[in-house]
Amino acid sequence: MESRHQWQCECRYQFSVTSGTVFHKTHMDLPRWLMAVWLVCHSPKGVSSKQMQRALGCTYKTAWYMTRRIRLAIQNNLVGVRIEGRVEIDEAVIKADGGRATGNVPNHTKDVLGMASRTYGTLRMFVLEQLTKAEIERVCTTNLGKVRALYTDAAHRFDFLRERAPRYTVTHGWSWKHEFARGNVHVNRVENAWSLFKRGLMGVYHHVNAKYLQEYLHEFSFR
User: What predicted TM-score, i.e. pTM, was given to this entire model?
Assistant: First the structure.
């Protein structure tokens, strides 16, 4: 159907080249869509919707819609990706608006877990419902593949990982050791990911709603 730049199946179903993609049913032209994808993937600390609005010359609502669609496409690309080889695991606390309330005090932080493969360079970060052994074990069981060695801090909630592979620990806590690395034993790859993510939240996005935190974690993991 040359006049409409579409195809029609013999069953009379009509579709275009963007059907089944993140560009489906959008009024934004493809050159600006591809520019938006480039901006999201190229910026080490992310790109805000306000910055996207200025770069593309569109409304803020359109820019937010586009950046969210790109994040969802990134999320789909990470489905089924398992962390394998020599793996570092570490947790962090992220400031996020809209968290659960504790008593009369609103909770503005979320616990997150990061896993980075030294062997293959893959990285995944996940929001935890609670910072407990059971929740960490659930996330690790779902996302760890064939692991040769595990590197964590000395927290007891990671003790169950000894059943999967040899576990090496570094003591971060308030002890007399206060280690950051002991030879090849460290979790600095995940710590670097936390640092970059927190700088992105503070300097680019300024704040993030807990509802969308996992999408932002997927975005940074993908980059």
Answer: 0.86
